[in-house]
UniProtKB/TrEMBL annotation:
Source species: Pedobacter steynii
Self-association state and partner proteins as the record states: Composed of two chains; the small (or glutamine) chain promotes the hydrolysis of glutamine to ammonia, which is used by the large (or ammonia) chain to synthesize carbamoyl phosphate. Tetramer of heterodimers (alpha,beta)4.
Catalytic reactions of this protein: hydrogencarbonate + L-glutamine + 2 ATP + H2O = carbamoyl phosphate + L-glutamate + 2 ADP + phosphate + 2 H(+); hydrogencarbonate + NH4(+) + 2 ATP = carbamoyl phosphate + 2 ADP + phosphate + 2 H(+)
Biological role: Large subunit of the glutamine-dependent carbamoyl phosphate synthetase (CPSase). CPSase catalyzes the formation of carbamoyl phosphate from the ammonia moiety of glutamine, carbonate, and phosphate donated by ATP, constituting the first step of 2 biosynthetic pathways, one leading to arginine and/or urea and the other to pyrimidine nucleotides.
Record pathway: Amino-acid biosynthesis; L-arginine biosynthesis; carbamoyl phosphate from bicarbonate: step 1/1; Pyrimidine metabolism; UMP biosynthesis via de novo pathway; (S)-dihydroorotate from bicarbonate: step 1/3
SMART domains (alphabetical): CPSase_L_D3 (SM01096)
Any one GO molecular function term: carbamoyl-phosphate synthase (ammonia) activity
Any Pfam family the entry gives: CPSase_L_D2
Similarity comment: Belongs to the CarB family.
ATP-grasp domain residues: 133-328, 676-867
Gene3D superfamilies: 3.40.50.20, ATP-grasp fold, A domain (3.30.1490.20), ATP-grasp fold, B domain (3.30.470.20), Carbamoyl-phosphate synthetase, large subunit oligomerisation domain (1.10.1030.10)
Cofactor requirements of the protein: Mn(2+)
Protein name in UniProt: Carbamoyl-phosphate synthase large subunit
Length: 938
């Protein structure tokens, strides 16, 4: 069936601010869906309150509403615009719940709006745990023994009937919120109460826990002719008992028998057909008994999910793009395969490579948190890697994580305490993967590890092979490692740093030069969806070690944009937003735009966003070889946050041009000591400071600058390791801990300006002119990290003198640092005096917020300035803000109820929302301001 021509205007509901359990994968899906619908000539309106994402940018939607995600907001849009249909499947649980609420209030019927991509009835069937359980029984799909409970008494009766261990699953929640496992009777009352309170309908499913069973996911698409295809099978490395968002996952499934896979396919298709007659996508999760291959259904989500983004990047099959076309009437055989351009979308992808996803956690931000993984998701981001084998992909994923690891072990960071290792295997946390390797290195038998972890023997055998290879390598010196063995090591994912560590007394560069002399270098393979059965047209590559290279460099002038790696607290989706605009600006300026990144959730790793995408770790060895192959004019590091900035020194050392501000000038700003010296030279006020390398020196410095003092390391993002202390004893503890967590770092001791106001400026400099993008005033006082503060644009209570000083200092610093591109400066204001706290010559989390508030494409402008394609005078900048815009942080403390919610110098928020107000009498602002007064009076 061709496109439904009655649909001329569609509203896409977004997912709102980033929280744990609902991250930027939905912004990726929403962006892809919007572009897909625009291709069909459909007018696209978007509602989303997240300013940090590309989804809320004008390059994505025709009409973007940065409004609160409420039914009232939606109704206002429907009054303002003629909307024919709403697509709620791209915004996660937030969008589905909002769609259901609007249906219950009669909003869709009142305005003649059709719900496409899902049946509202399907939402109820899948989110209501009892309705889902009964449906599965009706269609003959296995489920775990369970009972629904709406009260404490019903829950107790269910537990008595089913027996322990149990799992409690609240209805209508996201990321496993409120859920958990109960192993014994004494734990049940508390877990049940938490689950009932977490569910908006005060309803939980009390279910038999199939701990230790294997877990799988299938991604499906269905069209209006009832054709269903399976896009991807995904296997969890971790067994049942850990939320799939916190599990290492592998695609395609590695240990699934063909008979079991076919059975699972048939059941998934049956489930999708049973939940409603709609065209779109869904995700199905199954559990399999490892002893007899019995299958039970865990859940089905009639929307794109975290796994949909992963499956899209894993296969090259753009699920959200195709799902949105199915939603407006097309059938699968009528849509072109986006990779081959010759086959149809009714062609199930086939992989001749392996992908591995590893989550990224930020437990360091939540002191005292329960770090054991379970039913409730706790990770803040993830990386994906592609290799020709599972073990190659796994090592590449470890290199991508931004936790200082050079691969899976063999980097000097192993644990040697057998007690800690065995406890960590039994009580899984962020490091269990590394502890498995450590256990094997210490001689713990594979079968013992399998019994404790319940991880499939095949996966463990793959990791054990690494231990054998390491033992063999230690027999050689660098110059006599046989070529074939060297080649095998690289095929198994060993980095040059790991090989140098294992050989001892050699450097990474020496290993690199040796393998180059042996002719061992990376080749690049194309992600083609069809195992090379058909020619692929899309330049989307991963590296491996084989003979044939499929990535042929063009003779065009080109630029590489380094991405920001996995999302984590302090470095979120705002940097991916910046990278996307960097790619667009490079293309508009006549460059071939090349992207390097490893985050499957983001728009920058969409295969049609860059001219060429390398889905690779932002890790020096990988970046270096891509640069050698492509020979770009230069590399942009300013847009990818700390991940990309950390690469600047290596680029400088190797004579590779950094586009925009130079490495030395960036380093002046990053090195707190050098920066303070520069401020002194410029006669710009700054808090008194000193530098220390141990606790004794820190106490001497603190006495000179005066308590209270802010203790912090150089070269960090998101306030990592920062604390405010008021005496010698606390200072000593803080310094010892900081140097233990960040060895080799220097400690900065700044006098803390108590009860000062914090403000910020963002600007663009082209080497001559400086344009102030925006001045912001924080609601919370100095001492609370800027990422955790509500910021108001323009300032609401600063004097003309203060704002003038901020502008003057911003321009002085921009010129003194020779900034070409972006600059963010944070100030403290006390008694009308403006002090500079820090300067960041890079994209910041506030630039997307200012760009959306003023409706000016600032990152695009900055990128063109960096590239030398334009000067600031080439742009006519017209701002469109009436009243004020407020950036309000959003937290995920509900995932860590045991953690204190007090804010301080170390950032804890996971995302942000934007709110527009007409004037300062707005009740929303008055409440925030009242909270600020409470802070200041402490």
């Amino acid at each position: 069936m061709p496109k439904d021509t009655s649909i001329r205007s569609v509203l896409i509901i977004g997912s709102g601010p980033i929280i744990i359990g609902q991250a930027c994968e939905f912004d990726y899906s929403g962006s892809q869906a919007a572009l897909s619908l625009k291709e069909e000539g459909i007018e696209v309106s978007i509602i989303n309150s997240n300013p940090a994402t590309i989804m809320t940018d004008k390059v994505i939607g025709d009409h973007v509403y940065l409004w609160p995600l409420t039914v009232d907001s939606i109704e206002q849009i429907l009054i303002e615009r003629k909307i024919d249909a709403v697509l709620p499947t791209m915004g996660g649980q937030t969008a589905l719940n909002l769609c259901k609420e609007a249906e219950e209030r009669g909003v869709w019927e009142k305005y003649g709006v059709r719900v496409i991509g899902v049946d509202v009835a399907a939402i109820e069937k899948t989110e209501n745990r009892e309705a889902f359980r009964q449906l599965m029984i009706d269609i003959g799909v296995g489920v775990a023994p369970s009972r629904i409970a709406n009260s404490f008494l019903e829950g107790k009766e269910a537990a008595q009937e089913i027996g322990y261990p149990l799992v409690i699953r609240p209805s209508y929640t996201l990321g496993g919120s409120g859920g958990g496992f109960v192993h014994k009777k004494e734990e049940f009352d508390h877990a049940l109460q938490r689950g009932l309170e977490a569910s908006p309908t005060h309803e939980v499913l009390v279910e038999k826990a199939v701990l230790g069973w294997k877990e799988y996911e299938l991604e499906l698409l269905r069209d209006s002719n009832d054709n269903v295809i399976i896009i991807c099978s995904i296997e969890n490395f971790d067994p049942m008992g850990i939320h799939t968002g916190d599990s290492i996952t592998v695609a395609p499934a590695m240990t699934l028998s063909d008979r079991c896979y076919q059975d699972m396919r048939n059941q998934a298709i049956k489930m999708m057909r049973a939940i409603g007659n709609f065209a779109g996508g869904c995700n199905v999760q199954f559990s399999v008994n490892p002893d007899n291959d019995d299958i039970i259904a865990i859940e089905i989500n009639p929307r794109v999910s975290r796994s949909s983004a992963l499956a899209s990047k894993a296969t090259g099959y753009p699920i959200a793009k195709i799902a949105s076309k199915l939603a407006i009437g097309y059938n699968l055989d009528e849509i072109e395969n986006q990779i081959t351009k010759t086959t149809s979308a009714y062609f199930e992808p086939t992989l001749d490579y392996v992908i591995v996803k590893v989550p990224r956690w930020n437990f360091d931000k939540f002191k005292g948190a329960n770090m054991e993984l379970g039913l409730q998701m706790k990770s803040v981001g993830e990386v994906m890697s592609i290799g020709r084998s599972f073990i190659e992909a796994l090592q590449k994923a470890c290199q991508s994580l931004e936790i200082g690891r050079a691969g899976l072990g063999a980097d000097g960071k192993h644990n040697r305490s057998i007690e800690e290792i065995m406890h960590g295997l039994e009580h899984p946390s962020w490091n269990r993967l590394f502890l498995i390797k450590d256990a094997m290195s210490m001689g713990v038998p594979l079968e013992s590890i399998r019994k404790v972890t319940k991880i499939d023997k095949w996966f463990l055998a793959q990791i054990q092979e690494l231990v054998h290879l390491e033992t063999e390598l230690k027999r050689y010196s660098l110059n006599n490692v046989p070529k074939d063995f060297f080649f095998t090591l690289k095929q198994k994912g060993f980095s040059d740093i790991q090989i140098a560590y294992l050989l001892g007394n050699v450097t990474e560069d020496e290993v690199y030069e040796r393998r180059k002399s042996l002719g061992i270098k990376r080749v690049y393979k194309m992600v083609d969806t069809c195992a090379a059965e058909f020619a692929a047209q899309t330049p989307y590559y991963y590296s491996t070690f084989e003979e044939e290279n499929e990535s042929t460099p063009s003779d065009k002038k080109k630029v590489i944009v380094l991405g920001s790696g996995p999302n984590r607290i302090g470095q979120g989706i705002e940097f991916d937003y910046s990278c996307v605009h960097g790619l667009l600006a490079a293309k508009e300026s006549g460059y071939e735009a090349i992207m390097i990144n490893c985050n499957p959730e983001t728009v920058s790793t969409d295969f049609n966003m860059a001219d060429k995408l390398y889905f690779e770790p932002v890790f020096w060895e990988h970046v270096r070889e891509i640069i050698e192959l492509e020979k770009p004019e230069g590399v942009i590091v300013q847009l990818g946050g700390q991940t990309a900035l950390k690469m600047a020194e290596k680029l400088q050392e190797n004579g590779i041009r950094i586009i925009g501000t130079s490495y030395n000038d960036m380093d002046v700003a990053e090195d707190r000591g050098r920066f303070s010296d520069l401020l002194k030279e410029l006669e710009i006020p700054y808090p008194k400071y000193g530098v220390a390398e141990n606790a004794e020196e820190a106490i001497i410095v603190a006495k000179e600058v005066g308590y209270p003092v802010l203790v912090r390391p150089s070269y960090v993002l998101g306030g990592q390791g920062m604390s405010i202390v008021i005496n010698d004893e606390d200072l000593e503890k803080a310094v010892v801990k900081l140097l233990g967590d960040l060895p080799g770092n220097r400690v900065l001791i700044d006098h803390f300006l108590d009860r000062a106001e914090e403000t910020e400026s963002d600007s663009i400099c082209d080497g001559d002119d400086v344009h102030i993008i925006g001045l912001m005033e924080h609601i919370e006082p100095a001492g609370i990290h800027s990422g955790d503060s509500s910021a108001v644009l323009p300032p609401f209570s600063l004097s003309e003198k203060v704002m003038n000083d901020m502008e003057v200092y911003s321009k002085k610093i921009a010129r003194a640092l020779n900034v070409i591109g972006l600059l963010n400066i944070q100030f403290a204001v006390k008694d009308e005096k403006v002090y500079v706290i820090e300067a960041n010559p890079r994209a910041s989390r506030t630039v997307p917020f200012i760009a959306k508030a003023y409706d000016v494409p600032y990152i695009n402008i900055a990128a063109k300035v960096m590239l030398g394609a334009n000067k600031l005078k080439d742009f006519t900048i017209v701002r469109k803000l009436e009243g004020y815009a407020i950036k309000e942080p959003v937290f995920s403390f509900d995932k860590f109820p045991e953690v204190a919610k007090e804010l301080g110098p170390e950032m804890k928020s996971t995302g942000e929302a934007i709110r527009f107000i007409k004037n300062l009498e707005d009740p929303y602002f008055r409440k925030l301001y009242k909270d600020k007064s409470m802070y200041l009076s402490k």
